[in-house]
Amino acid sequence: MPPETAVERSSRKTLSGIVVSDRMNKTRVVEVSRSVRHPAYEKIIRKSSRFCAHDETNQSRAGDEVEIMASRPLSRTKRWRVTRVIKAAPRRVEEAKS
Asked: Which of 3, 43, 80, 88 has its CA 20 to 30 A from that of 10?
């Protein structure tokens, strides 16, 4: 990959959110929350969006905080890739044994 392409690739949009579903193979559903001020009432409202993200190594689990990066369309719903796990959620004892 030429160096100018590498620079262009890293400038893609990145978001961070919480993995809410890890039931699909190599796919994670990530919920990204943001705060928005209502234009008329000035109240701050929490809004969230859910993105399907590709996780090639199945490294993230439900509850983990992850960083996702925009990518080419990988399927009908997947337009994001999991780049790294920011903070892992605590694991249950049964899950750790298996």
From this structure: 88
